Amino acid sequence: MRKLKTVASLLLAVVITGLSAITPAFADYDPGFDVDAEAVYFINLDTGKVIYEKDADKKVYPASTTKIMTALLALENIPDLDTPQIELKLYIQNALSGTGASLAGILRGETFTPRELLYAALLPSGNEAAMMLGDYVGDGSLDYFAEMMNEKAAELGAVNTHFVNASGMHDDDHYTTAYDMYLITMAALENETFREIVSTNYYYAGEDQNGNPLHWNTTNFLISPGSTYYYPYATGVKTGTTDEAGRCLVSTAEKDGYHYLMVMMGAPQYDSNGEKLEENMVFKQTIELYDWAFSSFSNKTLIEKDVGVGEVPLKLARGGKDYLLIKSGEVFTDLLPNEIEASSITMELDLPAVVNAPIKEGDQVGTIRLMLAGEEIGSVPAVAAEDVDASLIATLIDQFKRLFRSFLAKFIVVFVILSIIAYITITVLRGRNKNRYYRRRG
């Protein structure tokens, strides 16, 4: 539960970080090995920094990672997850018959609560469970539910996504991108129930109508102890596999206070000869990328708070003081490759040409931009390092000058306007007088 709460707080932190830091893309940073998946989007949740991506805007098929969106809409539209009883409808059963789609073992005549169906959809990736949720939220129409999915995707900024079903069964018009799936997953992770479910490796749902136990195990082997691909730092989320989509995995992981989210889409299932690969490449390469990130990047403090950084010209100060000391207003820490030392960071000061007294210590007067190889990686406020009182006489003189300049400017404008009006008036009168003169002589 501690990890779940940590992830929730990080969702807000990513947004807040974006307000104070401009994060360079380390998306082209070389992990030292080839990634065979079609598309990858790998982001550090603490900083919002993308440390690796591959064709993140490429159109791909999401397979059962679709169920992340299905769960998100169910959680948003079903106030009570434990009271409604939802039954498997015949048309859903018929639609899945003979498809070979993954199922949770739900039989006709059985009813389940929305919470149970969420576990059934997200752990064993039960297609019937996802469709039951879609049917319920869509008021009996899976087509309407698909419209809701697309509206939600657009709302989240997932503009390169289009859904046609709640389960992720293949359709050429059912597609997304790695980046869009990141946006959808981030929205889902804001919900505590979703986080709890996708971090669960096993759920017992009681017995079916024949007395057989319903054991729902996650298909995300990263969080399954005893699995070949168990990864002790993984904390969720969802798999997806079809022949057309390949192997897909949206996952999160945490180690030593570092938190990551990775979307890997289209990892291969077969080799060049069409033989099925012995290894599950989506798990294998996800683990490799996580290991690389945890060993290759670390937080570095690039500037402490209250560090003196220079001075700026000062006017109107008591005692004739003509400069103001400037210091950093905040500490700034960023995720950087281990080989980059904090000493490699340079500072650029954005300060006004002059500052007028009075001013209080801590008042922001500019910005300190932190630069790495000519690229801005963040910024902190540049603030006054001291209190400076204003000189009464100097202030009065300055105000008089301002007033005079303002008056003079207004006078000039009025004078010009009046001059133009006078010129026009005189010109018109002269014209009339000439006309009268020629009429008399004629």
Low-confidence runs of at least 5 consecutive residues: 1-9, 11-25
What composes the largest sheet? 6 strands, mixed
Return the domain count.
Answer: 3
The CATH topology of the largest domain, please?
Beta-lactamase
What is the annotated CATH architecture of the largest domain?
3-Layer(aba) Sandwich
Strand order of the largest sheet: 14-16-17-12-11-15
* Alpha carbon gyration radius: 33 Å
By helix and strand content, what is the structural category? alpha+beta
Number of strands: 17
- How many helices? 10
Indicate the CATH class of the largest domain. Answer: Alpha Beta
First-to-last CA distance? 107 Å
Average the pLDDT over all residues and give the rounded result: 88
What is the 3D form? Answer: elongated
CATH H-level superfamily of the largest domain = DD-peptidase/beta-lactamase superfamily
Query: Percent of residues in beta strands?
Result: 15-25%
Following the backbone from N to C, one meets helices and strands in this order, namely: HEEHEHEHHHHHEEEEEHEEEEEEEEH
Helix proportion range:
25-40%
Function: Removes C-terminal D-alanyl residues from sugar-peptide cell wall precursors.
Enzyme class: hydrolase
Domain Peptidase S11 D-Ala-D-Ala carboxypeptidase A C-terminal: 297-390
Pfam families: PBP5_C, Peptidase_S11
